[in-house]
Task: structure prediction
Amino acid sequence: MAATLPPLPYAFDALEPVIDATTMQIHHGKHHQAYVTNYNNAVAGTELDSKSVEDVIRNLSTVPENIRPAVRNNGGGHVNHSLFWTLLAPKGKGGGGEPTGAVADAINASFGSFADFKTKFQDAGVKRFGSGWAWLIVKDGKLAITSTANQDNPIMPDAVLTPTNAVSGKPILGVDVWEHAYYLKYQNKRPDYLTAIWDVINWPRVAELYSAAK
Result:
C-alpha cells in the first residue's frame, strides 16, 4: 500500500525551545515527504505496492535487487520518522520527565538506573558516525540499546543491518541523529541535541510500545 505522510501530532513550534519550528517544518514537510515520495516511486507497479512499508523493510532480502537500495533507504526513512514524531511531545504535555511503571522498572533492571540509561543511550547517538539513529529496543523480552546507520530500522533482520554490530528487535524509542534533525539550532553539537531532547521524549508512548513489544 502506498506510503503517506502522517500529520504531526502537535504544532511545528510545540517542541520549542528543544526543537525549533523551522527544523520541524523542514524535517517533516521536506525530508519525510521525500522518503514517502521516493518509496512510492520505487515500488510502483510491483507486488510490494500492496504491502505495508513495515512488512517490506522487514523482509528486505525478498525485495528485487534493482530497487532494494531505494526501498531500504526511503522505506526505512518513512517508518523511522513515522515512529519518531509520536515519540516526541511538548514539555509538560506528555513530554519530558522520567518513565514510570513497567518500562521504568525494565530500564532500571537493564541499565542500573534511568541516569545510567540516558548516558548509554546518548553515547550510542554521539558515537554514530555520520547519519543514523539511536534506539532502545526489546529483544528476547529484554531491553537493549543499539544504533543503526542511515535509515536502517531494528525491525530489519540482523543480517542486513548496518553497521554489522547493530541489533535487531522491536524499537520502543528512537532518536534521529541525522544532521537535518538538529543542525539549525545545535550546529555540529550533536551531544547538546541529545542532552536537550529528553525534555520532549514522550514516555507514555514509549510505555505503550514497551507493553506491546513484550
Summary: The beta strands are 132-139, 142-149, 170-176. The two ends are 27 Å apart (CA to CA).
